[in-house]
Fold each of these.
Amino acid sequence: MEEQASNIQVLPPDKAKIRKLWKIAAILGIVTAIEFVIAFTIAPGAFKIALFVGLTIVKAFYIVSEFMHLGHEEKSLIWAILLPLVLVLWLIIALLAQGDAIFMLKY
Amino acid sequence: MSASTAAVGQEEKNIWMGGTSPMKVSYGKLMMWFFLLSDALTFSALLAAYGTIRFSNPAFAGDRSLYTFSQDYWPIPERVFEAVPFLHGVSLPLVFVGIMTFILIMSSVTMVLAVEAGQRMDKAAVIKWMLWTLLGGIAFLSCQAWEWGHFIVGTEEGSTLADGTKVFGANLAINQYGPPAFADFFFFITGFHGFHVFSGVMLNFLIFYWAVVGKLERVGHYEMVEKVGLYWHFVDLVWVFVFTFFYLV
C-alpha cells in the first residue's frame, strides 16, 4: 500500500462544481436574510409562520439535496430517507393539536 | 482496517457480497444516512414537544411595544435573544443568532469544498478546507457558550414575579423570560444541538489529522471526509430548523 501513495493523481479543481456550491451558499444566505426582513416587517400570525416554515423547507432542500448530495443518489435511497419523515409530519400535527386541546382545558 | 478498505477499493465487485452495493452507495455512507434519519426523528420529537408546550401556554396578546417578561405567557423569542457581545444594553433582536447561523452555513460550505477536494485526491486542499470547517465549528460553539452565559445570567432589569420577588436570568426551575418550560426547552434543544456540534468538531479534527498525516491518502480515497461531511451538514440542517422554530416563530 505504501507504493500506491507515490502514484496518486491529483486532479485539477472542478470549477463548475465549485461555482455551483458557492451559488447554493449564496441562496442559503439570501433566504436567511429574507427571514430576517420578514421577522421585523410582517405582523405576527399564521401567514408569517407559513412563510417561515416555507423558507426553512427551501433551505433544508438545498442542504440535503446538494450539500449532502442526496438529490444525486439512487431513487430508492432518496425515498428510504424521505418517507419515514412523513411520520414526523403526522407527529407534529397531532402534538400541536394536543397542545391546543390542553390550552382549552386550562384556560 | 486500512488493508480491508483498500481491498474493497480494488475489488469493487465484492462490495456487499452480492456484487453490487445496495442503493449504489458504500456501506459506511448508507449507515450514516440511517443514523442521521434516526437523529432527525429525535430532533423532530424535541421540536414537536416544544410546539406542544408552547401551544398549551397563552401567547402574549397585547400591544408589542408594551411587552414585558412575565410568567403568565410564553415569551416572544426576539425579545429574549437581543443581546450581542461588546454591545451592552443595545437592543439588537436576533442579530447574534443570525451571525451564528451564518457561521454554521459557511462551515457547511467549506465542508463540501473539502469533500470536493477529497474526490480529486488533493491532500493540500482537503487539509485547508477541513481547517476552515474546524474553525467554523469552534466559532459556533464559542458563540453558543456566550449565548448560554447571557441567558443564564439574564438582564439587569430581570423580571418581577406575582409575589413581588425579582428573578434574574434562567435555570431549570425558574426564569425571568417566561414559564419555566421555556428555559428548559432552550437548554435541552440548543444543548442537544450544541453537543452534536461538539461531536462534529471532534470528528472533523480526526479527519483533519488523518489527512495531515497522510493516512487517508494511503487508504486510497477520502470517503471518510464525505461520511463525516454528511454528519456535519446534518448539524447545520438541524440548526436551520432550531433557528426557525425556536428563535423566529
Amino acid sequence: MNTDLQNVSKGLSFWTAFLAGRFVAFFCRLFRYPGTSLPGAVALKICPSMLSALAPSYEKIIAVTGTNGKTTTSNLLVHILRFSGISAASNSEGANMLSGVATALIKDCTLGGVARSPVAILEVDEGSVGGIFPSTKPGLVIVTNYFCDQMDRYGSLDHNVTLLRQSLDGLPRTALLLNADDPLVVTAGRGRSAVKHYGIKGKRLDREANGGGNTREGQHCPDCGEPLVYYYYHYGQLGDYYCPQCTFRRPTPDFLVTDVQDEDFLKFSLCFFEEEKEGEHGAVCSYKKVTRLQAPLRGFYNIYNILAASAAAITMGVSNDIIATTIQKYAPATGRMEEFLFQDRSCTLALIKNAAGVNEVMKTILRKEGEKALVIAINDMPADGRDVSWLWDADFSMLDHPSIKKIICSGRRAGDIAVRLKYAGVPLVKLVLEPGCRGSLEILGVQGAEEYFVLASYSTLYNYAKLLKKRRGR
Amino acid sequence: MKLKICHLYPDLLNLHSDQGNMLIFCRRAEWRGIQVEIDYISLPEKVHFTDYDFIFLGGGTDQGPVYKDLLEKGPFLLEAVENGSVLLSICLGYQLLGLSFKKQDGTVLPGVGIFDAYTEEVPERLQGNILLETAPDLQDEIKRLGGAPLDTLIGFENHPGRTYLGKKAQPLGRVIKGHGNNGEDKTEGARYKNALGTYLHGPLLSKNPHLADLLLTKALYRSSGDVHLDPLNDDLEIYAHNVMKKRLR
Ligand SMILES: [Zn+2]
C-alpha cells in the first residue's frame, strides 16, 4: 500500500460516498445502463473531495487532455500497457468530466478503497482540467491539440489554453508530453523542465506556406502576436511553424513520425531525437529510427494519437516490439472510425464534434474510391454542445463530389446539417431529411452504394453503434 | 447585376462561425444571377466603405487591436451607412458599433456610434437558443418582397454583454424565448438605416432566409435600384427554422 494513502484520512463522508458510488454502479450494470458518469456524480455529491482520497493509491496517473484524440490516445495507451502486463484503470468510454473520472476510479478500487490497478489513464475534458488536475495530481499530462470545440460551454479557445496553463502551474513536478506541431499546445510547456514533444515530419512547401485555408486557430505568435510562418501544415494549425519576429518556433520533437503511408492502414516510422548538429543551412537534427508501426486505423489524425500513446508507453519503459505488436491489434473505440458490416457492405461510424475533426473524417472518406452514401446526424444535447454553428466552420464543400451518392441528414439538428450542405454546394437531390436514428439507417441501407458511412455527434453515436451491431452480418 | 461586398476583419472577428452569413448572403445572390465581389479587409488597411453595398462584421474575443482600428475606420463606416450601405454586425461587432462599451473592470470605451445603444459587460453569459418576433415594420417589408413566410427569427446567443437601446435605435425584434439585448427589456438587436446589429449566431442567416433576402434586396437597391429577387426554394431553411421554433415555443 502506498504510504501517501495512509496520510489521507478517509472520513465518514468518503466511505458513504464511495459505497454509494459502488451501489449506483452495481445497479447501472444490473439494468444495463451505461453508468459511465452517474456513480461518480452521486459519490461527488456526498464527498466532493472524493478524487483526492482515491488518487494517491495509484503509482502513476496519466492524464490526456486537448480537443481531439483524447479517447483514442488514452485507449491506445491502456491497450499497450495491458499487453505489457500493466493493468490500468481508465474512463475509456469518453466520460471525461469530473464525474466520469470519479466513476472510473470508484469502479477500479477494491471495497477497501484501494486501487486494483497500479496505473490510471484519465481522459480529461479540456474544460474540466481545473477540477481534475489538482485532486488527482497526474505524474504525466499528455496534450493533444486545441481546436474550436463546443464553444458555448467554455467561452473560447484562449480560455481553455489559459485554464490548462493555470492548472499546470499548480503541478510543478508533473511531466508533460506535448504535441510539438500545435503552437497552442506548446505554450503550455514553456518555463517547465520535464517536457517532451512529439510531432510528424512533413514535406516543406513554399507555395502554400502562410496563406489561405481555414481553421488555423493558432496562427499568431503567443509571444509577440506576429502571424506565424509555416514550412508546412498537416491540418488546421498543426505543422512546422516559426515566428518571423522573435524566437518562438516549433520545438524539436523528441518523438518524431516519418515516412507516413495513409491508405487503408496507417503505416509510419517512429524515430527518437538523437542530437542537433550544425549543418550547411543552420542546425540539423538527427534522429534514430526505432520501429515501423502499422495500425488498423484510418485518418491522418490518428497518427498523432498512436504517436502520443507510444511515446507515453516508451517513457514508462515499454519495449518497441510490444508497442508495434499491440498497435497492430488495436480495435478502435465506438465511433472512432469503427467499421461495421451493414447490408453486406462496410459501414464506418465516426464521431464528429468540431470543424477540424469533421474535415479530417471527410478527407478520409473521400480517399476511398467507389460510390458512398452517408448519414450525418447532429444532436444538440449538452454533451454535443448546444450550439451547432461550428458546422459552418467545416469545409463541407468536399462532399459536393461525384462519388457521394446520398447524404441522409439526421438528429435533432437534421435541418441545420441539411441547410449547411445545401450552401456547401451539395445538390438538393442528394439530400434526405430523416431526424430519426433508425429511420436514417433504413434509408441508408437502400442506397445500394459500395460503402456506407455514419458521421454522428456524441449523444447519438451510441444509438447508431447499437443498431449497427445488431444488424452485423445481416 | 453586381454587388460589392466588404468582409471586415475576417481573420480577427471569426468566432461562432459567423462568417457563414457571408457564404449564405453570397450564395443567395449568385443563385439569382447576381455577381458578388468580396473584399476582405483587416487592420490596418484603408477602406472606402461607401464603395460597398454590403458590409459584414462578425463576432470575436480579440478586442484590443480590432477596437483601436475600428475607431479609426468608424467615421467612414458611419458615412457609408448614412449613404445607404447595408451593414450586418454580430455580437462583438454589434457592441463596438454602439455608443460605448463598458468592460468588466469598469473602463468605458467609446464606440463607433452607428447605433444609439450602449453595452456593459458582466460576468454571467446569456446563452442558448433564441426566438424573436420580427419587428413589425420589417415583417411588412418582408411580406411586400414576397420573402419566405416567416414572422420570427431564430438564432443562438452567447454573450456576457448587456446592451441597452436609446430612442434612435430600433430593435430587430421582440424576444419570445431567450435573453436578447440585456435579458430584461425583451428587445434584441439594433437598427439604424440599413445597418443591423444583433447577438444572434447560428449563423443568423442560416435559419432566417427571409432576413437574408431583405438585406440582399436593400443591397441590390443601393447598387442598381432594383428591388426584385427571384424566389428560391427555401424548404430546408424553413424546416430548420420551424423545428427550432416549435421546440422553443
Ligand atoms: Zn513572435
Amino acid sequence: MSPILAASLDDVLEQLVVQVWVYQARGGDHAGARAHAERAVERLLSRGLPQARAGDGTMLLDPYATCNALKARAGEHADEAWIDWLETLRRNAVSLPPAPHRYRFHLNREWRLPSPPPGRAIVLRLPLPLRGQLGTPQVRLLEPAGALMDRRDEAGRVELRLDPQRVRGSVVVEMAVDLVAGETRELAGPSAGDPAAAAEEELWLRPTEGLIGPSPTVAALARDLPGGPGAARELARAAFDRLISLLQFGDVHREHLDREDPLGGLLKSSWADCALFSTLFVAICRARGVPARLVSGFLLYQAEPSPHHWAEVLVEPGRWVPYDFGTWDYSAGDTRDPVWGAFFRERIDARFTAEVAPRHFTGWGSARPPERWLRLQRLTGDRYEHTLRVLPSGELFQRDLVAVETLGAA
Amino acid sequence: MIRRLVVPKELGEIEVRLLQWYKAEGDPVSADEVLLEFETDKAIVLVTAKQPGTLRRCFCGPGEWIKPGEVAAWLSDQPDEPLLADRNTPGENLAATFDAT
C-alpha cells in the first residue's frame, strides 16, 4: 500500500505522545514524552519510513504507517517504543473499576461545514449513551451564537437543528452527559420463544450491512472454524483467536480497502483497526448462522478516552457476549498469553456505547464525511483531541475534545 | 388518481428510518413542497413532491423503518378519491426528489 504522506511531523509526534507516552505527558512531562516520540520517529526514518516535504519544507509522514511500524507481534523484534506502548495500553486496560460506576463524559465537538443548500436547516448530531444514561445531557451551542432552532433528544443521540443563515463555516457544541457503566460479560436480549427474538436474529444475521457483503474469502475462513448455531460461543472464540493470529491490530486507510471485497482483502493486507477487525468477526459469525453485531462508542479511560468499536455475539437466545479486538494490542497478538491473550474476549470494561449497527447510529446529519479523510489524535490541554481531516487538503472536518470524570460507585 | 410515494431502491439495501412528516393526512401538497424526511446511516434525505395533490395515507410514523421499494404514502389528485385496496396495490408513483443533505 502506498503511504499517505499527509500529516506533519508535529501531528505525528503528538499522536505518538498521546498513544504511547500519555501518562508521562499528563503527569507534567510533555517535553519528555515528545522527546521519546522524536527519537522513535528518527529510528523509523533510519529504517526507511517514507517521508515527503511540503512546499514550506515541513516533513510529512503517514501517521498510520508510522504507528503501525512500531508494533510487533510477541516473539518478534520490537522497537523500544512498542514496549512503552504496551505498558500504556495495559495500564489503560486495567484503569477502570469492574463494578458499575458513574462517569461524566465531556465532549466539545467542532464541525467545519460547507455552505448548506438554501432554505434547509443544518442538522448536527452528538452521541449519547445507549446504555446507562443518567438524566438529561447538558448541551450548549458555543458557535455560532443564537443559531439553535431545535433540539431533539432520543436514544443514543441528540440532534441540533441550526439556522443556516447564521452558520458560516464552523459550529462548536459543548456537551456533558452522565452514565453508569461497568464491566460487561453479557447483555440481555429477547429470550427464546419471545417473538422479538426471531426479528432480532434476522436483523443480526443479514449477509449485507456496511462493509459486510458476499465474500468467498470470508466464507472460506468461516467454514474452517469449529462451532456454529448450536455452539455459538465455540465459533466466536475460534473466530476471535484465529483473526488475532492472522491479522495485526493497527490503523488502516479506508481508501486502501479492496473495493470488491473489503473484508476478505484484510486477510491479504494483514492489518485491521478496531472497526475492521470487529466487522470481519461479525461477518464470519453471520456466515456460520450466528447472530452478531457491530458496536461502537468511547473508551472511558481518563488518560485516553478514544472512540472505539467492538462486537457482540448472540451466544444463545437472550444472551449477547462482547468481543473486543483491542485484545490484540494488550497481548501483542499472542492469544496464548495467560494474562492478556483473552483479556477482552467475552468481557469488556466500562464503555460509553453510542451505536449498535445497523439501527442505532448517531448519523452524520449535515456534516457528511469527505470521500477521503485522515484521523489524528493528540493531547490538547487536559483533553484528548480526535480530529478528522479532509484529504488531500488536510483541512479540518471534525474535531472532538473529550474528557471523562469518574463520579463514584453507582 | 392515487399516486404512491415509494422509497427508491437506489438508497441502499437496508431500511431507511423515517424522521418526520412535514404534512399530515388530508393536507394539500403543492409541487416542490417538502413531504417528509428520512435518514440512512450516511445521510438525511429530504423528500419533495414534484406533483401537487392531497396527502391521503401515511404508512409509517417517525422512528419507523421502511425498506427501499416499499410504499411510504398515498397522495391523490382530488381530496376525496377512493383509495387503493391495500399498501401493495400497484399504481402510479408520485414524482418526487430525494435529496441527501
